[in-house]
Amino acid sequence: KRKLKWVLPGIQVKVVSKRFKDGKYYQTKVSIGDVPDATTFLATTQEGVVLEDLREKHIQTIIPSIGSPVLVLMGSHKGAEGRLIERDRRKNRVRVQLGHEDQQKETEERIESEFNWAMKINRKRQ
Fold it and tell me: CB–CB of 84/118 below 8 Å?
């Protein structure tokens, strides 16, 4: 099994593999729950079905809308929460205001390959 690079608890993703569970969950939005070790994680569908045995290759990030709460997935601010304030799909860049509304610190992170460095947070975080 490959080591997880960007999956963190509390983010929303979409299943993009037609091979996972014979395509039953293809294009389904799920929330990442527990990440028990460096290679595995659990995800829950909006209907409450818990999915096991997912891998990063089976999922894709969901591009959040402006103003959405996000979690930074990679880089020096990995794990930091913030709010998406700007996105540029052409340049593959996002601008995130880190921390709470009263904090003015901003960082710009580059989107790498098929996923964003800033990811939509599940509003029902556990």
Answer: yes
